[in-house]
Amino acid sequence: MLKDKFERNHDYLRISITDKCNLRCTYCNPVDLPKGFFAGHNRMTADEIEKVASVFVEQGIKKIRLTGGEPLVRKDVKDIIERLSKFPIELAITTNGVFVHEFIDIFKSVGLRSINVSIDSLKKDRYFSITGRDEFERVRENIDLLLENDFFVKVNLVAMKGINEDEIPDFVAWTKDQPLHVRFIEFMPFAGNAWSGDKIISYKEILDLIASRFSFEKLADDLHDTAKKYFVPGYKGTFAVISSMTQPFCGECNRLRLTTDGKMKNCLFSKKETDILGALRAGEDILPLIRACVWEKEKMLGGQFTPSIDKINASDIQNRSMIDIGG
Ligand code: SAM
Asked: Domains plus CATH for the chain?
């Protein structure tokens, strides 16, 4: 078991398999990344991902989510999916959805059924202005394709003031006839993403916007859920809010992360990273490093800030950009 000093057990690992992405969402993938930013040859190979994952699985990891960057742009992603699907875990993926149609058969063949797709707007022009790419129709079609094939589909969008707040009720309307699970994510601060507290649409504001059009009810949340779940009676799908900033869920956090260059982070906001890949390549035993990294986890938000939004100074936060951590 991977326990920290606050008695939290960790059984969920998110592995970033690339720091590259085909989209240019500024809240995630800043345009002014420093030269030489990408991990290059320091990226974990498929072999290394499998080896490191096997150590985590032996220690009780029950769920692995592949992320990035955009995981489906990595050339050997099929190989990685096949290798990880051999472990006794639930395998899941978070994707921007652009290439899903090319991978649906492999998802089916390995039993990967849970897919999170990011789409920040339901308007083609606005999608383009957020992502810098004209992929709206492809992503919508791919979400339909996943639903037609009975995948469990969560739709992620980052709720940002002045960007997409007017569409929040439209996303809930989408759950009327489709069994999808929309998740509104509070905008989080990362290196280079021009975050400020006044750009957040808070959990409470999101619910107020939805209440202006719908009556809804609360669903029971699971112990480790990051999302607070709701539904509109009679609708096929559900919606939820990931209130990372205004009501964080650190108390029951069961997550660990590996960046594409093989650094372990015990929290999305942790300053400290543990070099698992370096140790693996040096032939060292990585388990003591993993255990120490888990043990040192801070009580809340990587120890970097508290949920008082107006007191957060984004430039004081030491972290990578989201594309580089793996969301
Ligand atoms: N490329 C994939 C995708 O688009 O889903 C996986 C990686 S992306 C970093 C994972 C998730 O992180 C996406 O749902 C994205 O919206 C979210 N994300 C990125 N930057 C964020 C931020 N600053 N605040 C909140 N969520 C963010």
From this structure: 2-325 (3.20.20.70)
